[in-house]
Amino acid sequence: MKTQVGIVGAGPAGLVLSHLLHLSGIQSVVLEAHRRGYVEERVRAGVLEQGTADLLRDTGVGERMSRQGLRHHGIELQFGRSRHRIDFAELTGGKGVTVYAQHEVLKDLIQARLEAGGQILFEVEGVSVQELQGPKPQIRFRKDGNDQELECDFIGGCDGFHGICRPSIPEGALKIFEKAYPFAWLGILAEAPPSSQELIYAHHERGFALLSMRSATISRLYLQCAPEEDILSWEDARIWEELHRRFEVVEGRMLQKGITGMRSFVAEPMQYGRLFLAGDSAHIVPPTGAKGLNLAVADVRVLAAAIAEYYRSGSTELLDRYSERCLRRVWKVQRFSWWMTSMLHRFADDNPFDVRRQLAELDYVTSSRAASQTLAENYVGLPFE
Ligand code: FAD
Ligand code: PHB
Q1: Pocket residue to mutate for ligand 2, from 78, 199, 345, most atoms within 8 A of Cβ
Q2: What average pLDDT does the structure give for the chain?
Q3: Phi and psi at residue 147, to the nearest 5°
Q4: Is 165 in the pocket of ligand 2 (CB under 6 A)?
Q5: Nearest CA to ligand 1 atom 12
Q6: Going along 234-293, which residue ranges are E strands?
Q7: The dihedral of CA 348, 351, 355, 361: what is its sign?
Q8: For 42-96, how does the pLDDT look when each residue is reduced to its tens digit (9 = 90+)?
Q9: Whose CA is nearest to atom 35 of ligand 1?
Q10: Which of 1, 89, 220, 232 could form a Cys-Cys staple with 73, CB 3.0–4.6 A?
Q11: Active-site residue numbers?
């Protein structure tokens, strides 16, 4: 098999890349380890930056999002028993975010790719990438028991944090920057109307909590918990009890629950020969800033433009600058995600000084226009170059 761009992974990075390339008349094949149903149902992120939602709409895959997504013009910060609104629209000149589940974005992208004749191969096994420094890199894989080889001009390494692309780069070619946090999030999806119109980020003496949603009848709620916690020790009643302690919530049937670890991670550079890493394969942020999906989309926006320029003019100038251009945004988003996480969570070794400092920071962020604006412009998404 041959194609122009071979893409490993049908997550947000891989599917948006394939979609953008198609709009520039460039062929790609997407290889995905899981079955289609799994990709279309896995509950993950839910907040789209202004620029992410605009991109989906402007490229013809935003119709259902515009109908079903919830447009939010602010968030609430809760601390010391009171709530304070950060008004995005007022602070950013009318920008906001769209609450629309990641798996719904993926459904829309998969449908658009398949309708346009795009190739997405699900349930591929044994994927490996070869000849990354040569002009024709290859992807080997097994599909329905048959060994296959896909020859391409470029490879998009969009296979997430646990994928094979980043580990295929020789040791020594990458520099890794990493930070672990001494806590995790227990997340639930519940059939219950959200008890607030907007997201609530809560600083609480028992630990951080987040009230989010997917629709007028579905709540998405998170609780800070210990990283080694076993979800089996959290029966539904215990989760509700803990949520009630941290803020007002309406109970409902629990549809899903799980524990997500937290880390900050960056691999530099995001390129090795003709392999380009994008999204979680290159970097991970803690979810407090709601940035993971948005950063994946920001990477492939740069990559698609660089690949299109190569086919248009033969110039590799934009491709050569891919990593440097992405990393400028990546590090700003890392900083924001780390800052939100540090301000809102309870640290195991908290000394009373640090708790007072967090509360002073929250007081400052919600009372100074300059500080609120800093939060708002990062949350709705920094502008593109
Ligand atoms: P992914 O979405 O991980 O996609 C990678 C794809 O590659 C997957 O479909 C995977 O099956 C496939 N793949 C992996 N290995 C191979 C292989 N060898 N061969 C073929 N295919 C392969 N972000 C938020 O902002 N808010 C949240 O609430 C939030 N919750 C999260 C919960 C969980 C459990 C996780 C893991 C992440 C969460 N994130 C959240 C982060 C966000 O979902 C990710 O940043 C986003 O999915 C990144 O997109 P991606 O395309 O880079 O990677
Ligand atoms: C979500 O709705 O899943 C969500 C919202 C905001 C975050 C993280 C996750 O910061």
Answers
A1: 199
A2: 97
A3: -75, 135
A4: no
A5: 9
A6: 253-268, 271-272, 275-277, 283-284
A7: negative
A8: 999 999 999 999 999 999 999 999 999 999 999 999 999 899 999 999 999 999 9
A9: 44
A10: 89
A11: 72, 201, 287, 291, 379
